[in-house]
Amino acid sequence: MSKDDIKLIRHSLGSISLENIEQKEMSEAARKEYCASISAVFPIIEKDIKKAMYEQVLLIAESDNWEKVNYGRGTCNGISLLYELWKLANTEHLSAGKEKFDPTNPIGEI
To answer: Is the dihedral of CA 6, 9, 15, 20 positive or negative?
Structure first.
């Protein structure tokens, strides 16, 4: 599925899409810091998110009524949105490359 297909499906079901939660107002420096922060913990939270999503899908499969199924689907959508947002930030940070290390300033600017 394309990004536009997912956006259309989410909007038709009354949910926000990734474009609604992206931080467009950030300055370049703030965005860079945000992406670096996410990237630092992304390998850990990625495992947690995938485990939470798997457990939620199992719980949906065991649901005995439609309300539980719909609530579980909404939970999956929320988890998925955050995962997509943080994955984009991680990818952006990794694709930007690493800054050159300045041996005369090992601590960097604070």
So the answer is: positive
Measured CA to CA, the distance from residue 17 to residue 3 in angstroms comes to 10
Contacts of 73 (CB under 8 A, 6+ apart): 60
Written as one letter, the residue type at 72 is G
* Stated pTM of the model: 0.74
Q: What is the DSSP letter of 24?
A: T
- How is the chain split into domains, by residue range? 27-94
- Residues counted in the chain: 110
60 in Cβ contact with 73 (< 8 Å): yes
For residue 23, the SS3 value is coil
| 37-67 tens-digit pLDDT | 999 999 999 999 999 999 999 999 999 999 9
User: CA 47 to CA 70: how far, in whole Å?
Assistant: 24
